Amino acid sequence: MATHYFEAEGRLFKLDTTTATKLLxxxxxxxxxxxxxxxxxxxxxxxxxxxxxxxxxxxxxxxSLLHEEEVVIALAQAExxxxxxxGEALLAQKEATxxxxx
Length: 102
Fold this sequence. Notes:
The chain is an alpha+beta fold. It has one domain. It has helices spanning 68-77, 85-98; strands spanning 3-8, 11-16, 21-25, 28-29, 32-33, 36-42, 48-54, 62-66. The chain has a four-stranded antiparallel β-sheet with strand order 3-6-7-8. Strands 1-2 form a two-stranded antiparallel sheet. The longest helix has 14 residues, at 85-98. The model has no long low-confidence stretch (mean pLDDT 94).
């Protein structure tokens, strides 16, 4: 599905995944396909949207807005193969703002 409608902040939003930039896709974990996964997109309007996807009968995909910090954390904690080149670039750009040295 290329279009997701969802409510957030008291408004209705529409995500068109064909015009948004995919930053993260967790469909494969440790190289294995999953039946539930998430995708994170940056929209042309600069919003970040997470799509929770499922292949289970009776369940539906859902979408929600994310704050930039949540996106950076998700990118940092993801497997390298789950981040897109655009996700890698965003992580490199924003890491110093949101990630501290241990």
